[in-house]
UniProtKB/TrEMBL annotation:
GO terms for biological process: carbohydrate metabolic process; heparan sulfate proteoglycan biosynthetic process. Signal peptide: none annotated. SUPFAM superfamilies: Six-hairpin glycosidases (SSF48208). PANTHER family: D-GLUCURONYL C5-EPIMERASE. Transmembrane segments: none annotated. This is D-glucuronyl C5-epimerase C-terminal domain-containing protein. Residues 49-249 form the D-glucuronyl C5-epimerase C-terminal domain. The lineage of its organism: Bacteria, Pseudomonadati, Pseudomonadota, Gammaproteobacteria, Pseudomonadales. It comes from Stutzerimonas stutzeri (Pseudomonas stutzeri). Pfam families: C5-epim_C. InterPro entries: 6-hairpin_glycosidase_sf, C5-epim_C, C5-epimerase.
């Protein structure tokens, strides 16, 4: 659960991540109790899924750049992708068709355009010439897109995982693989825009919202980006992803060494 104000709400991303962690533990231990914990998280995640296939966040959220308050019920491509990654594993581990059904719904919502209430958009807010490049938004903002990098890469990993699940509906696998391929092409195209002073920025609002004074660039987020680039490179072999993974990782090492030298 996530702490929200004076209370707590189930957070779909947290549920999915806890489930993935438990599943990973089960792969090592092969103890039934570990798989049961992963399944319990997956089942709780399904309980939060609505009829569209989305996993709404039942609390308000204020985006740090726009300051707009999103009402309870806002959705996230990161949640959709993490759910797909968990459901793919739980189906592999249990054979339970309910995880296929939930995954099909989750995929459908992930691919729903923002103008229809979904989380899929294009790179047109960065430049109109990039309207042919797909993007999945962790947080949907108006009037422009923000392009949060880590949430996007988590969504891509979900598409990849779901494309590998044997399903009664082979169209799901084909559709997931198609958008994963398109998503990687986008990632290769836009990574240069995220680099600022040797580190990676959280989003592209310094372009899309002219957010020049409040650019969110931290070593911790760069570390997350390096981890995700490593995962995506491992399944694509993309030299572009590998170059950015290595460059940002080396920059983090330099920062750590510099801080250590100053102590």
């Amino acid at each position: 659960m996530a702490k929200v104000g004076d209370g707590a709400e189930y957070n779909p991303v947290m549920l999915a991540q806890c489930g993935l962690s438990a599943y990973g533990k089960w792969l090592k231990s092969k103890e039934g109790k570990d798989l049961a914990i992963a399944v319990a998280y997956g089942e709780k995640l399904i309980e939060t899924q609505d009829k569209r296939g989305a996993f709404p966040n039942d609390y308000q959220h204020r985006y740090y750049v726009t300051k707009q308050m999103m009402p309870a019920g806002w959705t996230s491509a990161m949640a959709q992708g993490q759910a797909l990654s968990l459901f793919a594993r739980l189906f592999a581990g249990t054979g339970d068709q309910k995880f296929i059904a939930a995954g099909k719904l989750a995929l459908n919502y992930l691919l729903t355009p923002t103008y229809k209430g979904g989380v899929r958009t294009t790179m047109a807010s960065l430049d109109p010439s990039l309207k042919g490049y797909v993007f999945f938004e962790e947080v949907v903002t108006e009037p422009n897109d923000n392009y949060i990098l880590n949430g996007y890469m988590f969504a891509l990993l979900g598409l990849y995982d779901w494309s590998k699940v044997p399903s009664p509906n082979a169209a799901d696998q084909k559709l997931s693989a198609h958008f994963f391929k398109e998503g990687i092409q986008t990632l290769e195209k836009i990574l240069p825009y995220y680099e600022v002073d040797g580190l990676s920025v959280y989003d592209l609002t310094h372009y899309t919202f002219n957010n020049r004074k409040n650019i969110l660039v931290t070593a911790s987020y760069t570390g997350v980006h390096v981890y995700l680039l490593h995962a995506l490179h491992s399944v694509t072999g993309s030299s572009i992803l590998k170059d950015y993974e290595d460059n940002w990782h080396n920059d983090l090492i330099e920062i750590a060494n510099s801080e250590q030298a100053e102590q």
